[in-house]
Structures are given as structure tokens and as C-alpha cells.
Amino acid sequence: MFSLSVVFLMIGKPYDLSVDANDIKVANLQAYDVLNYELDSNLTHGKYRAEVVTRYRKYDELTKVSGEYIDDKGSLHTLSGDKGTIKGNVMRVDGNGHYRNVFENVDYKSKTIIYDKKALRSPTPFVLTQNADKVTGASANYNIDTKQLKAKKVKAWLQTKD
User: Fold this and answer.
1) Phi-psi category of 51—alpha, beta or left, where left has phi over 0 and alpha has psi -120 to 50?
2) Residue 93: CA count within 13 A, CB half-sphere
3) Residues 104, 147 contacting (CB under 8 angstroms)
4) Which end of the chain has the smaller Cβ count within 10 Å, N or C?
């Protein structure tokens, strides 16, 4: 039986595997239950959590991500989602994306949110609330500094003073 197996292996056609070198993702690091602080000598500016962080050469992938960031004006911003990707200073969350500016009482929800500390973008439908005002739409860009919203297919419910 052994000699028959060896003969079969010698005359059998070997498997051919073609791999595109540009399509290979090799993780440099993987960490679980991550808690990261952004701080300087005076203040803790941010606190970020993730169940899993996988670091690749050009970006990081996160699972069950949430973060808190205090800007230069003292405003607290929070961002969370099921999955996240960080490339440079841009963070993208997918699945149950939720952004809050606690000081301004702004609440922004969308399936996908792209955040870079100056603006939020959503290529997917969103709901934005501030106090009793509510805006929904198909996609949006929200400038955090100027508080301007540019959106498509908008519906709005605004509270007015009597």
C-alpha cells in the first residue's frame, strides 16, 4: 500500500496555486480588548476602545470600536460602530455608526460614518438630531467646526419658537 501511494504522488499532477502579490494582507499585530489614550503633559485628549485591533502596513482594522475625543474648545466628541478602519487621521466605522458632540447636543447615526476630527461624511442614509430638531437624508457631509450640513434627499423637523 505504501509503495502504491508513493507512485501515485510521484505521477500525480501537483496543485497549482497562483497568488496576486498585491492582494495579500499580512497582519503585523493583533491585539484584544484594547484601550488606548491620547494625551499630552496637561490633558487626556482621547480614549479609544476596541474588542480586536488588527494592524496592517497601511491601516488598522477594529471590531466593536468606540472613542471619546476632547477638542481644543473643550467639546467632547464620541464615535462608535461595529467595525472600524483607520488610515492616517481618518476613521471609518461601519455598522451602527454613532457620533455625538456632547457639548453641542448633536447626535448623528448612520450605517457608515467617516470621521476626521473636522468633518463627518456618510455615504449611507443618516439621522441627525440636535435638541428637538431632526434631519434625515440619503447621504451627508457635516462640518464640525462650522456646524454646516450638506445632505441629499433631506427631510427635516425643526422646533420653532412661538
Assistant:
1) alpha
2) 24
3) yes
4) C
In the predicted structure, residue 103 carries a pLDDT above the cut 80: yes
Kindly indicate the confidence band of residue 23, based on its pLDDT and cuts at 50, 70 and 90: low
Q: How far is CA 2 from CA 22, 90, 146, in A?
A: 41, 59, 77
Q: What is the DSSP string of 15-83?
A: P-----GGG----SEEEEEEEEEEE-SS-EEEEEEEEEEEE-SS-EEEEEEEEEEE-TTS-EEEEEEEE
pLDDT at residue number 21: 53
Q: Cβ(131)–Cβ(105) under 8 Å?
A: yes
